[in-house]
């Protein structure tokens, strides 16, 4: 599987460890930055991650910041992205199965490395169920207010 990963400075150490672990698990990892723990702005790297996933260059994304909140908001600014903030494996699996999430966000200050790995493992094996969820997911990329704004 091709997975992009990005963080801010607060998530840098976790990003580095997760990237190594993902590669060891046989995934092709694209590091969208940053390349050091120097202070950076999470939107810059959330946007890079969103571009990588939405372009099809990778299958999924993993976003990490201190809480996971800021970077998930940044990733979700892209209309093709469905980034779910998760903190345990069940929410990660349901994000894939019910919401067709193509990215998960983790909070490095809130989630330990073993739990983060468990979340990613659950996310990557999950499959979108479609069915009753498909119409809801379609509305996420095609919200009704978007049509109103183009009138």
Write out the strand line-up for the largest beta sheet, numbering strands in chain order.
Answer: 2-1-3-5-4
* Total number of distinct structural domains: 1
The CATH architecture designation is 3-Layer(aba) Sandwich
- The CATH H-level superfamily is Sugar-phosphate isomerase, RpiB/LacA/LacB
Helix percentage: 40-55%
Low-confidence stretches: none
The largest sheet is: 5 strands, parallel
The number of helices is 7
What fraction of residues sit in β-strands?
A: 15-25%
CATH fold name, please? Ribose 5-phosphate Isomerase B, Chain: A
Helix/strand structural class: alpha/beta
Mean pLDDT: 93
How far the N terminus sits from the C terminus, by CA atoms, comes to 41 Å
Number of strands: 5
Radius of gyration: 15 Å
CATH class: Alpha Beta
